[in-house]
Specification:
The complex is a heterodimer of chains A (about 290) and B (about 900).
Chain A lengths: L2 H28 L17 E6 L11 H4 L6 E5 L6 E6 L16 H18 L3 E4 L8 H13 L19 E6 L6 H12 L3 E8 L1 H5 L6 E4 L6 E4 L2 H25 L3 E6 L4 H14 L2
Parallel strand pairs in A: 3-4, 3-5, 5-6, 6-9
Antiparallel strand pairs in A: 1-2, 7-8
Helix pairs in contact in A: 1-3, 1-4, 3-4, 3-8
Chain B lengths: L2 E3 L11 H10 L5 E4 L3 H4 L14 H18 L2 E3 L11 E5 L9 H18 L3 E5 L12 H9 L10 H9 L5 E5 L8 H9 L4 E4 L5 E4 L3 E3 L2 E9 L5 E10 L5 E11 L5 E6 L3 H4 L4 E4 L8 E3 L7 E7 L14 H7 L3 E5 L2 H4 L6 E5 L6 H12 L3 E5 L2 H5 L20 E2 L10 E2 L19 E2 L1 E2 L8 H4 E4 L5 E8 L2 E6 L14 H9 L11 H4 L3 E8 L5 E3 L6 E2 H10 L8 E4 L4 E4 L18 E3 L1 H4 L2 E2 L1 H23 L4 H13 L4 H16 L5 E3 L4 H21 L8 E3 L11 E5 L9 H12 L3 E5 L13 H10 L7 E3 L25 E4 L23 E4 L3 H5 L14 H24 L2 H4 L3 H9 L1
Parallel strand pairs in B: 4-5, 4-6, 6-7, 7-32, 16-17, 16-18, 18-19, 19-26, 34-35, 34-36, 36-37, 37-40
Antiparallel strand pairs in B: 1-3, 3-33, 8-10, 9-10, 10-13, 11-12, 11-14, 14-15, 20-23, 21-22, 24-25, 25-26, 27-28, 27-29, 27-30, 30-31, 38-39, 39-40
The chains are: A alpha/beta (about 290), B alpha/beta (about 900).
C-alpha cells in the first residue's frame, strides 16, 4: 500500500471524526457566551459608546443634533471602536500528540484540535479573522469549515513539531497548541520572529496526566510515538524523580520564553475538562489586546 | 519424628536444581515496551542500580524452593512411617481390657484394627485376647475373622489377671505380640512379658492417657471425704467430684459437687463434701465429672448413711447411776455411727427417725401407741429392750400387743443367780434365716435374766436369736413396711453381759440400727447371700443386674479385699438388711504407673500416626509458584491494577472478622424480639432444619389466619451458642446421631425450661415406633433429655388443657397419626372439678411436650405456600393435616396463655361472688 493511499485512508477516517469534532467544538464554545466583544473605547464601529461634549475641532457632522437639542451645549456621539483581529492557530500535528495514557482518555491531539476549533468558533463569532499556517486568516462561518478540513488533513510523521510561522500577520495574534516535549529551539525561533513582527499570543501546552505523573515501574523500554527515540531502564520507578524535575524545568523555560516575548503560557491536562483551558485561552487573547 | 519417601528415586531430581539456577539466572524477566512521548526527557538518564538485568536473587530462591518442594512432594514423603515388620509368625493382640482403658478405648480398637488389617495383608494369623477375661487357650485365626470381633470388644470394669493367663500364654507357641496396656502396674506383668518375649517380638502399645480414679468415700471430721487418685499426669489439675442421688421426687440428679485441685506432682488428694444428713443419706454414687470409666465412679452403700436413732427410756431413771442407765450402752454403741435423738416418744416421733429404741418402756399412752404403730407401718424399726418394768407390766400378757413381737409370760426368769442351781445361759448358734447368721458368738456372753415368750405357733418363726436352751433371746415381727424387735434382756448389763461384748454392736449393725463407716469384713458378710442390685460397666454406667445370681458373703468379702473380677463385677450388692458397694478401687488399693524393662519396644499413640506430606508439600509449592507470578509482575513493573485485584481477591478469601458476628448477634436479638417468633433447634442436618423452618412458617401462616397470634419468620437456634430466652417455644426435631449438648448448653436449656420456655421434642418416628422408645431417634431423645430438668411425664390425659386451648381436640396427628404425646404428669391428688368434665389443674404448664408425629412435615409449606409433604390419603389426609394444624394452634396458644382455659373452671364462682 502506498503512502498516499494510506494517507488518504487516514484522512478519510479522520475527516469522518471531524463533523463530530466540530459539533463538539460548537458545543464547547456555546458554554462561553460572550457575544460581540467591543474594545471598550471609542472608535469606528456600529455600536453606541458614549456622548461627549463637543470640542473645538470636531467636525460639524459629528455632532449629534438630537442629543444636543435637549440641552444648551453640543454633544458628539461616539461609537465603540471595533476592530477585527487576525488570529493564527497552530496545532502541533506531530506523532507525539497522538499519545493517550489511558484507554478512556482522548489523545492529546484530539484535545488540542478541540480546543483550537472551539477557540476558532468563539473568535469567528466575535468577528475576528482566523487562519492557520498556510491559509490567510478570514472571517465568517465558512472559514470554520475550512479550518476543520485543514485540521483533518494536517498530519506529520515527525516525532515532535515546531510552530509554523508562515501565516503570521503583523500585529496579529497567534495560538500555539502543542505538548512542547520536543526540541525547544524551534519554539524559541518562532517566538523570536513573532515578537519581531509584533505578534502576541498564547502558548497552550497540552499534556497527558501520564506524562505529568510518570506512573511506570520495573524494567521498561520507552519508545517515542514515532519510534525514533528509545530509552531502556531496569527500574522505571527510579527515574520518576529526575523525569519530573526535567519536566518542571521545561515548563519554567516555556513560561520564561513567553514572558520575554510578551506571550502567555498555560498547561492543560487531558484529564481535566476542556472548558477551563478554553476560557483561559479566550481571556488571554482578549486581555492581550 | 521421621520421614520416609514412597518414591525415593524422584529425589535425584533435586540434582537438577543448580542447572535450573543457572538457567533461571540467565533469563531475566522480559521488559515492557511502552510508547511514551516523554522519552525525550528521559534521554541520558542512567539507572542507579543495574542488577535487575539478571533475575533478582530472592526471586531465584523463591522459584528454586517451589520446584524443590514440588520434586519432594512428588516423591511422596510420609511423616512417622509405620515400620512394616517382616515377620511371618502369628500375631497375638493382647488387650489389658480393664476400666483404666475406657477413656481411650476407641483409639485402641482403631490401632488393633490397623494391626489386623496389616496382618491380613501379610497373611499372618491373628488372635485377639482380653486379659480381663477368664483364661482360655489361645487360638490363632485368619486375620479377617478377627476384624468383627475386635470392633465389638469392650473393656471390663476390673483389672486384668496376669497370673491366670501366664500358663496359657506360655504354651501358645511361637508368635509375635502387640500388647495394648492400660498404663497401671499390676502384679505379674514382668513374668508375663518374659513368657511372651521368649516366643517372639513383643511390642507394647501405651497411650499414656491420664487415669483418674475414686476410692470409696470416708466419713471423717464431719465431712464426706472422697479420695481422688491419678496416674500418668503430674501437672496441676482441678477435678470435680459430683455426688448423685435421687431427689424427693425420685429423679436422679446432682446433689452436690466438690472441687479439688491436684498440685503439680500430687498423686492423691481428697475432695471434701459437707452435707446435711438428709442429703448425704440420699447419695447413691460419686463420680468424677468428665471421666467415663468405672474407676471414676464410687458407689455408696449403707456405710455412708447415718441412721437417725431415737433413744427413749422411761422418764423415772435411777438418777446418778450412769452405768446402770438403760441407754448408756446403746448410746456408746451408736454414738459414732448414728445420729442420736433423745426424749419422750411424742418428742421424737415428729423427727421421723429411722429407728426408735425403747429401753424398758412398758406403758405407752394411747396417742403414743397410735403414733408408733403408724410410724412402724411406714417403715420404722422399733427396737425394744426388756427390763424390770416390762417384766412387771401387763404389756402383751394376754393378747399380742401390736408393738410387741410376742406375748410375754409373767415375771420372766432368772438363771445362774445366787438362789439358782443353773449356770448362766449361753447363746445358741444363730439359725440360717436369722439376720445374725454368720456372726461369731464369743464364749463369754451369758444371760442371767430374761423375759420369756408365751409359746405360740408363730414364736419359732419370730425368734431370730435364742439361748442354748432354746428360749428366745431376740424376737422380731414384721408390721407393715417396718418391724418390731424385742431383745428379751435389758439394754444395760444388768441381766446379761451381752451389751459389754462386741457381738452387741454387730447385732445392732445387722439390724441396721447402726451402720459402720469401716469396710465390711468377712464376719459381717459371711453366711448371707448377696444379690447384686446394680452393676457397673467399664464406662461407669449402671447396668441392670436382674439376670445375675447372688454371691456368697465369703466371696464378697474376698472381692472387697482384692478388687472385683469376672465372677464378682463391681456394683451394689444387697443382703438381708443392708447393702454393700463393691467398687472398682478398694480403700487400700494403690495405683502405680506401669514400668517396663529396658529394651521393650513401646509405641505410643502420638508417634504412630502415619501422615502423608505429599499434599502439603505440593500445596506449598503451588502457593510459592503463585507468589512467583506476583513477584514476576512486581519485577516487571506490571504489578499495577492486577496486583490490586489479586490483593482484593485474597482479602475476600480471608474469613470475615468477628465483629461482623457480634453485629449479627445483636441483629438476631432484635429480630427475635420484634414480635412472637417461633424457633426450631438446628440439628446440623440441612434437610431436617429446612423442614423445621418450613413447618414453622406454615404454622405461623395458619396462626395468623385463625388467631390473634401473628408470628414473625421463624428462627433457627443453635443451643450451644444462641440465646434462648427470646423464644417462647422451641421445636426440637431429633435425628439419630444428634450430638449431646455441652454442659453449658444444658445449663442454658434447663434455665430456659425453668423460666417458662417450652420445647416440643419430635422424634419423627410415629410411623414405626409407637411409644416404645426403641427407634434411634427415641434413643437420641433419651440421651439428650437425661441431662435436662424434665419432670415426671405421662401420656396426655383426656382432660389436659392442651385439648381445649383453642380447638377441642382429642388427637394430635402430624404427618403420622399414631404416635403418642407425653406431657408433665398431673399431680396425683387432682380432683374432678364440680360440674366440669375435667380435673382442677391450675398450675404447672408442662415444660416439654414429647411425641413422634413429625409435625413439622405436616405443617411445612414451600415458598409458594404449597404443602411440601403429602399427609395421609384423600380427604382423610386433608382432615389429618387440618387436625395437625389445630394441634399446632392449640400448642402455641398453650405456650402463650398457659392454663388460662383451665382457670375457666372458676368462672361460676367468680360470677357468683361478683353478683353478691
Amino acid at each position: 500500500m502506498t503512502e498516499t493511499t494510506d494517507l488518504r485512508a487516514r484522512a478519510e477516517a479522520l475527516g469522518g471524526t471531524l463533523p463530530p469534532l466540530l459539533a463538539e467544538a460548537e458545543h464547547l464554545a456555546a458554554t462561553v457566551l460572550l457575544g460581540e466583544h467591543g474594545r471598550r473605547r471609542a472608535g469606528t464601529g456600529d455600536d453606541f459608546w458614549q456622548y461627549r461634549a463637543a470640542h473645538p475641532g470636531d467636525a460639524m457632522r459629528a455632532i449629534d443634533w438630537r442629543r444636543s437639542a435637549r440641552s444648551d451645549s453640543q454633544f458628539v456621539r461616539e461609537r465603540e471602536w471595533q476592530a477585527a483581529q487576525s488570529v493564527m492557530l497552530w496545532v502541533d500535528p506531530s506523532r507525539s500528540m497522538a499519545f493517550s495514557g489511558s484507554r478512556d482518555r482522548a489523545t492529546k491531539s484530539d484535545r488540542a484540535r478541540l480546543l483550537a476549533l472551539a477557540l476558532a468558533v468563539l473568535l469567528l463569532r466575535g468577528g475576528e479573522r482566523v487562519g492557520i499556517a498556510g491559509q490567510a486568516p478570514r472571517s465568517g462561518k465558512a472559514q470554520l469549515l475550512r479550518l476543520v478540513e485543514a485540521f483533518g488533513l494536517e498530519t506529520a510523521t515527525a516525532d515532535y513539531g515546531s510552530p509554523a510561522e508562515d501565516g503570521l500577520v503583523s500585529h496579529g495574534r497567534a495560538v500555539f497548541v502543542s505538548d512542547f516535549l520536543g526540541d525547544l529551539a524551534g519554539v524559541e525561533a518562532s517566538l523570536a520572529r513573532a515578537a519581531d513582527r509584533g505578534v502576541k499570543g498564547v502558548l497552550l501546552q497540552v499534556l497527558d496526566p501520564a506524562e505529568e505523573e510518570f506512573p511506570f515501574d520495573g524494567r521498561t523500554v520507552f519508545i517515542s510515538m514515532g519510534g525514533t527515540l528509545s530509552h531502556e531502564t531496569q527500574q522505571a520507578g527510579d527515574l520518576r524523580g529526575r523525569y519530573l524535575a526535567r519536566l518542571a524545568e521545561r515548563k519554567a523555560r516555556l513560561a520564561d520564553l513567553a514572558q520575554l516575548s510578551g506571550w502567555l503560557y498555560h498547561t492543560h491536562h487531558t484529564g481535566q475538562p476542556a472548558q477551563s483551558a478554553l476560557l483561559w485561552a479566550y481571556r488571554a487573547l482578549e486581555g492581550g489586546r | 519424628m521421621s520421614v520416609a519417601f514412597a518414591l525415593p528415586m524422584l529425589l535425584w531430581g533435586l540434582l537438577a536444581l543448580p542447572v535450573l539456577w543457572l538457567l533461571l539466572r540467565a533469563i531475566p524477566p522480559a521488559p515492557i515496551r511502552r510508547r511514551f512521548p516523554g522519552v525525550a526527557l528521559l534521554l541520558g538518564l542512567r539507572d542507579e542500580d543495574r542488577q535487575a538485568d539478571k533475575t533478582p536473587w530472592w526471586l531465584l530462591v523463591l522459584r528454586m524452593l517451589a520446584i524443590g518442594l514440588a520434586i519432594i512432594g512428588f516423591a511422596g514423603p510420609v511423616l512417622n512411617p509405620t515400620p512394616h515388620p517382616n515377620s511371618s509368625k502369628p500375631l497375638l493382640i493382647l488387650f489389658d481390657g480393664g476400666w483404666a482403658e475406657a477413656a481411650d478405648w476407641g483409639k485402641r480398637i482403631t490401632h488393633a484394627s490397623d494391626l489386623i488389617a496389616q496382618a491380613s495383608r501379610d497373611g499372618r494369623p491373628v488372635a485377639v485376647l482380653r486379659l480381663t477375661d477368664p483364661a482360655q487357650p489361645v487360638a490363632f485365626q485368619a486375620a479377617d475373622a478377627s476384624v468383627g470381633r475386635v470392633s465389638a470388644l469392650q473393656p471390663e470394669p476390673w483389672f486384668p489377671d496376669y497370673a491366670a493367663w501366664l500358663k496359657v500364654l506360655a504354651a501358645a507357641g511361637a508368635h509375635d505380640t502387640t500388647w495394648l496396656t492400660d498404663g497401671v502396674a499390676h502384679p505379674g506383668r514382668a513374668a508375663l512379658l518374659a513368657a511372651l518375649a521368649s516366643q517372639g517380638a513383643v511390642t507394647v502399645f501405651a497411650t499414656g492417657h491420664p487415669v483418674l480414679a475414686l476410692r470409696p468415700p470416708v466419713f471423717a471430721e464431719g465431712a464426706v471425704q472422697v479420695p481422688v487418685l491419678r496416674l500418668n499426669s503430674t501437672t496441676a489439675q482441678e477435678v470435680e467430684v459430683v455426688a448423685k442421688g435421687p431427689d424427693p421426687s425420685g429423679t436422679v440428679r446432682d446433689l452436690a459437687t466438690a472441687k479439688a485441685s491436684f498440685a503439680a506432682g500430687d498423686a492423691e488428694i481428697k475432695a471434701n463434701l459437707t452435707l446435711p444428713p438428709e442429703l448425704r443419706n440420699r447419695i447413691t454414687r460419686f463420680e468424677l465429672s468428665g471421666q467415663h470409666s468405672a474407676g471414676a465412679v464410687s458407689l455408696t452403700d449403707d456405710s455412708l448413711k447415718r441412721r437417725k436413732v431415737a433413744l427413749v427410756a422411761d422418764g423415772s431413771d435411777r438418777e446418778g447411776l450412769q452405768l446402770l442407765s438403760p441407754t448408756h450402752y446403746l448410746r456408746q454403741a451408736l454414738q459414732p455411727m448414728a445420729e442420736l435423738i433423745e426424749g419422750g416418744i411424742s418428742d421424737v416421733l415428729p423427727a421421723n427417725p429411722d429407728v426408735i429404741v425403747l429401753a424398758d418402756v412398758a406403758h405407752l399412752t394411747a396417742t403414743e401407741s397410735d403414733g408408733l404403730q403408724e410410724w412402724v407401718k411406714k417403715g420404722g424399726l422399733l427396737l425394744r429392750f426388756a427390763g424390770p418394768r416390762l417384766a412387771a407390766s401387763d404389756v402383751g400378757r394376754t393378747e399380742e400387743d401390736p408393738l410387741m413381737p410376742v406375748r410375754l409370760r409373767e415375771g420372766g426368769r432368772t438363771v445362774g443367780g445366787a438362789m439358782s442351781w443353773d449356770e448362766p445361759k449361753r447363746l445358741a448358734p444363730f439359725p440360717e434365716d436369722s439376720p445374725f447368721h454368720g456372726l461369731d458368738i464369743p464364749g463369754d456372753v451369758t444371760v442371767t435374766s430374761q423375759v420369756l415368750a408365751q409359746p405360740d405357733p408363730e414364736l419359732g418363726s419370730r425368734t431370730i436369736a435364742a439361748l442354748a436352751d432354746g428360749t428366745p433371746l431376740v424376737t422380731r415381727k414384721i408390721a407393715g413396711q417396718g418391724q418390731v424387735v424385742l431383745f428379751h434382756v435389758t439394754a444395760n448389763a444388768e441381766w446379761s453381759n451381752l451389751p459389754l461384748s462386741g457381738l452387741y454392736v454387730q447385732m445392732l449393725e445387722r439390724l441396721a440400727v447402726s451402720t459402720r463407716a469401716a469396710l465390711p469384713e468377712l464376719a459381717d458378710l459371711a453366711g448371707q447371700t448377696w444379690v447384686p442390685k446394680r452393676l457397673l460397666d467399664a464406662y461407669g454406667s449402671e447396668a441392670k443386674a436382674d439376670a445375675v445370681a447372688g454371691v456368697a458373703g465369703k466371696d464378697l468379702a474376698a472381692a472387697l479385699q482384692d478388687g472385683p473380677g469376672p465372677a464378682l463385677p463391681p456394683g451394689l450388692y444387697a443382703g438381708a438388711d443392708r447393702q454393700v458397694a463393691l467398687n472398682v478401687l478398694g480403700a487400700k488399693v494403690e495405683l502405680k504407673p506401669e514400668s517396663w524393662p529396658a529394651g521393650t519396644t513401646i509405641e505410643g499413640l502420638v508417634a504412630t500416626t502415619e501422615q502423608s506430606l505429599k499434599g502439603p508439600a505440593l500445596a506449598t509449592a503451588l502457593l510459592l509458584l503463585s507468589l512467583d507470578i506476583l513477584a514476576a509482575l512486581l519485577v516487571g513493573g506490571r504489578l499495577g491494577r492486577i496486583g490490586a485485584a489479586v490483593v482484593v481477591g485474597l482479602a475476600l478469601l480471608m474469613p470475615a472478622p468477628d465483629r461482623a458476628q457480634a453485629q449479627t448477634a445483636d441483629d438476631r436479638a432484635i429480630a427475635a424480639t420484634a414480635g412472637v417468633v417461633l424457633a426450631y433447634v438446628q440439628t446440623g442436618d440441612a434437610t431436617v432444619d429446612a423442614v423445621s423452618k418450613a413447618g414453622l412458617i406454615g404454622l405461623g401462616d395458619q396462626l395468623t389466619n385463625r388467631t390473634a397470634v401473628e408470628p414473625l419468620a421463624p428462627i433457627g437456634v443453635d443451643v450451644e451458642t444462641d440465646e434462648l430466652a427470646f423464644f417462647p417455644f422451641l421445636y426440637w426435631p431429633l435425628i439419630a446421631n444428634a450430638p449431646l449438648p455441652s454442659a453449658a448448653a444444658y445449663t442454658k436449656l434447663n434455665r430456659y425450661l425453668r423460666t417458662g420456655g417450652m420445647i416440643l421434642f419430635d422424634t419423627r418416628d410415629g410411623d414405626i415406633a409407637g411409644a416404645a422408645g426403641t427407634s434411634p431417634e427415641a434413643q437420641a431423645l433419651q440421651r439428650i433429655a437425661s441431662g435436662l430438668d424434665i419432670p415426671p411425664l405421662e401420656p396426655l390425659p383426656e382432660d389436659h388443657v392442651l385439648t381445649r386451648t383453642f380447638y377441642l381436640l382429642q388427637s394430635f396427628p402430624g404427618r403420622y397419626a399414631d404416635g403418642g404425646l407425653w406431657v408433665e404428669a398431673a399431680p396425683p391428688d387432682a380432683v374432678k372439678a364440680e360440674g366440669m368434665p375435667f380435673r382442677n389443674l391450675n398450675d404447672g404448664v408442662t415444660p416439654v411436650v414429647i411425641g413422634g408425629n413429625d409435625w413439622a412435615s405436616a405443617w411445612a409449606v414451600d415458598d409458594n405456600g404449597m404443602m411440601m409433604f403429602p399427609v395421609g390419603r384423600g380427604s382423610a389426609g386433608d382432615q389429618q393435616r387440618e387436625y395437625s394444624y389445630r394441634f399446632g394452634v392449640n400448642l402455641i396458644m398453650y405456650v402463650l396463655t398457659g392454663n388460662y382455659k383451665s382457670d375457666q373452671v372458676h368462672v361460676p364462682a367468680l360470677l357468683e361472688r361478683l353478683g353478691k
